[in-house]
Every structure is written in structure tokens, then in C-alpha cells.
Amino acid sequence: MPFRPRTAATGAALAVAAVLLCPAAAEARPPTAARAGPPTAAAPGWSAAPTGAARTAFYLEGPPGTALTDRLAVRNPTGRPLTVRLAGDGGVDGWLAFGTPEVTVPPRTQASVPFTVTVPDTAAPGGRPGGLTVTGTTPGARTRIPIRLRVTGPTLSALTVEQVSVTRRGSAALIHYTLVNRGNTALRPRLEVRADGLFVPLLRRPARTLPDVLPPGARADRTETWSDPPALDAVDVRLTATAAGGARDTATARYTAAPWGAGGALLLLLAAGGGGWAVVRRRRRAGRGGRTGGDAPARPGPRPTDGTRRTSATTNGTNGTKGTKGAQGAQGNASSADASAVDAPAADAPKANGAKANGATADRAKAATAGGTAARGTATGGATDTTTVARTGSGVRG
After folding, report:
1. What angle do CA 163, 167, 168 make, to 5 degrees?
2. pLDDT of 167 strictly over 80
3. Tens-digit pLDDT profile for residues 252-292
4. Listing from the earlier edge strand, what are the strands of the sheet with 219-226?
5. For 118-154, b where at least 16 C-beta lie within 10 A, e where not — what string?
6. Nearest Cα to Cα of residue 255 among 228, 232, 272, 271
């Protein structure tokens, strides 16, 4: 290839121009790009964790009435003092105690903070999850370390179903009930619902797990919706609740469905009251008719004319009859005695003493009549209608 002087000169000129323009390009770069360099690592902040090797939570276990201790490590790598506040939450809130609720850690120092968890005497056996919260005042950061506390001891699972009722709401019915944890361990209940009418079963819901977890002593008010209850029937609703550990309970409620509502129930009540009033009135009339149609008292017989006494008594009761017979017997004895006493003197005494004998006889007859009348009054206390006729002759035989 032949040498060309013109081409060589052009290339040399381009090279010189490039060398002259390079410093201007370097000066045209932004100032920040000239000072760019590797980023500076941020200084690490404080941290809190359980003391020991690689623990992420506190694990404590003990029976009721015990005090469990552990330690918290607070590390301050900064160049200024660190102040943190300590508190408990969750299931151990109120059981957690510190020597001081606020701790100050010097710069580039790690502090070990002790704390105590006191389990009450009435604590129920089982798990009590909680946490220890550490809040820094200077940086304003916050961290939480879990506390896994387990209370040991015998467990008791007991569950009851209470206050079951059924109410109507439109075309549906609501079944209200309350679940109560009577044991000392947390329970997750299962519920079964049944409803039986007078002749056929109406509702069958198999047992299913409820979303609520009941702690010991807790109550939960719940409602079950019955979308298609009967329009007219007498229904027995039965709820059965079960839980782990053998907990089981059953409760029932009676539900009467009527299509006429409250107005129909009021009419039914009024009709029942009217029927009862009619029955009472009929019985009263029957009682009055029985008393009117009873035996009428008998009229007294003819009066005696031979000087003897006669007693006639009519009574409606048995006691009255017996009393009258007793009175008649008393009168008969008195009359016999009077007759004997009168006849003997009348036969032997002269006629001149007749007037005196008649007076004595009359006195004795009056006394006998008064005694008989008193006997009849005492013996016939239960009689309702008594008629006594007595007469004493005025003459003495002889």
C-alpha cells in the first residue's frame, strides 16, 4: 500500500485535538462525582435479649404460689448513656416485677437486669403466654421478648350451657345461649344443636368447633340462627357442648310457634278465662239447687191430752238425730220418776191434801221439763231444725 502524506497529516491533527480536549471534559464533571467513595456504615444501636446462649424467649414453669426468676441483658454499644423502661404484658401482666422499672446503661456496656414472675395461689394450671417489653427513652426504640409461662398442677375441664332461649325474628328464629368455663384450663368448645317437634325432628346440626377459646372462669354469650322454624308447633331445642378433657353439658328450651302472634295468644287466654268462669257458675247453681231440694222439717204431731210429755225433732244431720234421741230418753226418765213420785202420794193421801199434792207435782214437772230442754240443747248442737213439743197434765190421777 503506497504512503499518503495527506492522510498521515490528518490523523496527527486529530490526535492533538483529542489531547487538548481531555482536561476540559474532566473539569466539566459534577463535583459530587469527584468526591464519591465507599459508604460509611451506621453505628449499631442498643439491643435487649434473655441472658444466655441464643435464647429468643423466656421459658418459665412452676406450680401456683411460686416465684420464678430470670435475667434480661441490655446492650448499649453507643457512645452515650442509654435509659430503658421495663414492663410486662399478656398473661403475666401483674405477675411480673422488677427491682426498678427504669434502667440506665452506661456507654459501650451490657447490663444484666433480674426480674421475678410470681404465680398466684389461685392460678389455674396451663399455659400463660405473655411478654416483657423494653422501651428506650433516648433512641425511642422498643422491643418485646416473649415469656412462655406454664403453671403446673392437676387440670379440670368443666363446661356448662346456660340461659337457653328461643325468640322469633321475622321468618327465622334465634337460639340464645351462654357458655361458661367452670374448670381451671382453657377450653375450645364444640356445639351440637337439635330441635324436635311434637311428631317429627325439625333441626339437626352436628357438633362443630366454635371460634372462641374460653379461659378459666370466662363466659361467652352466643346466638345460633334457625332459618326455617315451623309456623305452628311445640318444639324442644337441645344444645350439647363438649370440650377437651371430658367436658360436656346439655341444656334445653321449649319454643311454641304460633302463626297468629301475640293477638292470637291474647284471644286464647280470654277464651280460657271465659270457660273457667262458666264452669264455676254452673257449680254454684248446682250447689244452690241441692240445698233447696233437701228434706223439709216435719210438722209437729198432735198434742197429747193424757198428761204425758212428747218430743218430736226433725233434723237434717245425723248428729242432730242422735241428740234428739238422747233428749227424749232424758225426758222419759224424768217423766217416769215424776209419775212414780206423784202416784204414790196421790193414792195414800186424803183428798184434803189434794191441792198440796197438785202443787208439788206441778213444781216437779216444771223442773223435769227444764232438765229435758237443757239436755236437748246440749245433745242437738249440730242440728239445723228442731221442734220440741212438751205438755204436762194439770191433774193427778187418783
Report:
1. 170
2. yes
3. 999 998 775 555 556 666 777 777 788 888 888 887 765 55
4. 159-169, 172-181, 219-226
5. bbeeebbbbebebbbbbbbeeeeeeeebebbbebeee
6. 232
